[in-house]
């Protein structure tokens, strides 16, 4: 007897696999803007990339060399490293439409 297959299972199998999105959020300490940026970044990632992303939060006060290496001149800033092309979003990420569109994601 053959196992039953659902349409949803077929559609999932037919979709091309999406590359994991690698993000780095640069902040400066525990300011209100930094906390909002962290919260907004996590909410956007969970809503649009659930299980398919890596988000590293870098405090430039504790790790200034990482900021220098990535040429960070303003914080908070979210940097999409992969998949290419890289993108940068400055601010607390409260304008979700801009971030979602810039990441190439479908709006809810």
Order of helices and strands: HEHEHEEH
Main sheet: which strands, in order across?
A: 2-1-3-4
Low-confidence stretches: 10-16
Largest sheet descriptor? 4 strands, mixed
How would you describe the shape?
Answer: globular
Approximate strand percentage: 15-25%
In helices, the fraction of residues equals 25-40%
Folded structure, characterized:
- The chain has 108 residues and is of the alpha+beta class.
- 36% of the residues lie in helices and 22% in strands.
- The protein has helices at residues 7-14, 32-49, 64-69, 96-102; strands spanning 21-27, 53-59, 77-82, 87-90.
- A four-stranded mixed sheet has the order 2-1-3-4.
- β3 (77-82) and β4 (87-90) form a beta hairpin.
- The radius of gyration is 17 Å and the shape is globular.
- The termini are far apart.
- Residues 10-16 have low confidence and may be disordered.
Give the arrangement of secondary structure elements.
Blueprint: H1 7-14, E1 21-27, H2 32-49, E2 53-59, H3 64-69, E3 77-82, E4 87-90, H4 96-102
Parallel strand pairs: 1-2
Antiparallel strand pairs: 1-3, 3-4
Task: Describe the structure concisely for a colleague.
By secondary structure, this protein is of the alpha+beta class. It has four helices and four strands. It has a four-stranded mixed beta sheet with strand order 2-1-3-4.
